[in-house]
Design goal:
Layout: E1 3-7, E2 13-18, H1 21-24, H2 30-43, H3 103-119, E3 123-126, H4 136-145, E4 151-155, H5 160-165, E5 172-176, H6 182-187, E6 190-194, H7 195-205
Helix pairs in contact: 2-3
Length: 206
């Protein structure tokens, strides 16, 4: 089992934590991780893009000039794609971009992403991130103490003030255990999790 250091809010190492290999020590499946990221980005698309083809734009019923004798190239309609105001050749239409992964694939991809962060020493465990008041400055100070800039911070249910305090920090995203995903884990340089959040992750995904 992998052991990681546990830090306090001042950035000092106070303990060590043994991680569950069933979640943080699996074999990394890069293909599944890639599939999960592609699926998440695709599922975020609205699919509402629409443009008109030549059959949908108005006008163009009459042939602009006769077929021969004008010196111009032959034209059948002023709403053909080469004309200003004409229709688009392969116009996009509303569609569903959804890609579906089954539950086992999602879980395996998430475990692989978490394991990769542990293997790269980019997984930091904090004893607690509870704050008495909502202040961005306090949260920023904790991140500076941990020497972390761009981070995904996984919080437990007791860290509501911390979640609100982090909202104005553009390089930090907070998440609960039930909202973590592969894309965010890989997007941010470091994953910071509270000790309680790690226990919840192991309980849910082990």
């Amino acid at each position: 089992m992998a052991n990681v250091s546990v830090y306090n809010k001042e950035g000092k190492e106070i303990d060590t934590l043994e991680l569950n290999d069933a979640v943080f020590g699996v074999e990394v499946n890069e293909h599944l991780v890639h599939m999960a990221v592609v699926a998440q980005l695709a599922n975020n698309r609205q699919g509402t893009q629409k443009a008109k083809t030549r059959s949908e734009v108005s006008g163009g019923g009459r042939k602009p000039w006769r077929q021969k004798g004008t010196g111009h190239a032959r034209q059948g309609s002023t709403r053909a794609p080469q004309w200003t105001g004409g229709g688009m050749v392969f116009a996009p239409t509303p569609r569903d971009y959804t890609i579906r992964l089954n539950k086992k694939e999602k879980r395996a991809a998430l475990k692989s992403a978490l394991t990769s962060r542990v293997n790269e020493n980019k997984f930091i465990v904090v004893d607690s991130l509870s704050f008495d008041e909502i202040k961005t400055k306090n949260f920023k100070a904790v991140m500076d103490n941990l020497k972390v800039s761009k981070a995904l911070v996984v919080l437990d249910e007791e860290s509501t003030n911390a979640a609100i305090s982090a909202k104005n920090i553009p390089t930090v995203k907070t998440a609960r255990v039930n909202t973590i995903n592969v894309y965010d884990i890989l997007k941010y340089n470091t994953v910071v999790a509270t000790k309680a959040a790690v226990a919840s992750i192991e309980e849910v995904y082990a």
